[in-house]
Amino acid sequence: MDPAPLAELAAESFRGLVLRHRGRAGLTQRELATSLGVSRRTVQDWEAGLSHPSAEGLEALIAALLAAGGLRVGHERDEARELWAAVLRETPRMRTPFDDGWLAELVAARAAAPAAVVSVVGEAMPAAAGVEAGAVEHGQDWGEAPAVVGFVGRGTELASLRAWLLDEGCRLAAVLGIGGIGKTALAARLAQEVAPAFQRLYWRSLRDALPSGEWLAGAIGFLSDQQQVPPEGEEARLESVLQLLRERRGLLVLDNFETVL
Questions:
Q1: Quick check: 185 and 151 in contact, CB under 8 A?
Q2: Is the pLDDT score of 99 beyond 60?
Q3: Domain residue ranges in the chain
Q4: Is the torsion defined by CA of 151, 9, 162, 244 positive or negative?
Q5: What fold does the segment set 3-121 form as a domain?
Q6: 192-206 per-residue burial string, b: 16 or more CB within 10 A, e: under 16
Q7: Which of 70, 94, 98, 206 is within CB 3.0–4.6 Å of 25 for a Cys-Cys bond?
Q8: Helix axes 55-68, 100-112, angle to 10 degrees
């Protein structure tokens, strides 16, 4: 197959695709690296846009993501081709064409023995209570989050923040700095990239000193699928939000938090 048409398939970056599929599979960087036989730093560099795998490494990556459930059933070919196209586009020296036959055999083997293949890579992220494995629900409320279509740079900072949230299980992260240096854009880009790894994403701007009780009530409603009535009092509402975040993997982003301090 001629690699030129394939390289035009997708505009999304390789690093963005890797992060999305890894998040969908529920794999940490370390788990993915172990399944590939590479260092965690190698995966970090891919997701920071600092390097790309060889053709052999890319095949191994696709196989690992397929085994872990990172490629959607029925869309494996399209998503694998997107990954290949991104590397072709971003790495001039990469000229190896995508092998449709190889992927077809891989998908067939995966369908024949899914449990055996998955066990090699590692356990996927556990499903939330009340949600069957393989059918995990995702919901997002972006509030006043800015569009970050033209976002560039900050690769090192993004890589560090992604590692804290996805690999190290960090429960609280603060982006600090003087006004106007792009903290909100950085947070929005980060949230956009890690969103597939969370069942709920809730963004609120506190720029106009939104009363704590108000945004807490909104968070309780969203995180509970409107099933929980916000209790009276800020302390009780805060405890409810924390409990909901313990029960269901969620990402709460509060922009301009300094206005309420």
A1: yes
A2: yes
A3: 3-121, 139-260
A4: positive
A5: 434 Repressor (Amino-terminal Domain) (1.10.260)
A6: bbbbbbbbbbbbbbb
A7: 70
A8: 30
* Amino acid in position 231: P
Decide if pLDDT at 142 tops 90: no
Confidence of residue 58 (pLDDT cuts 50, 70, 90): very high
| Structure tokens belonging to residue 152 | 């560039």
Tokens of 132: 């069957």
Q: What are the residues whose beta carbons fall under 8 Å from the beta carbon of 244, sequence distance 6 or more?
A: 219, 220, 223, 224, 228, 250
pLDDT tens digits, one per residue of 195-216: 888 888 888 888 766 677 777 8
Token pair in block for residue 6 = 């394939």
Amino acid at 162: R
Sequential DSSP letters for 215-226: HHHHHHHHHTTT
Which tokens belong to 19?
């992060």
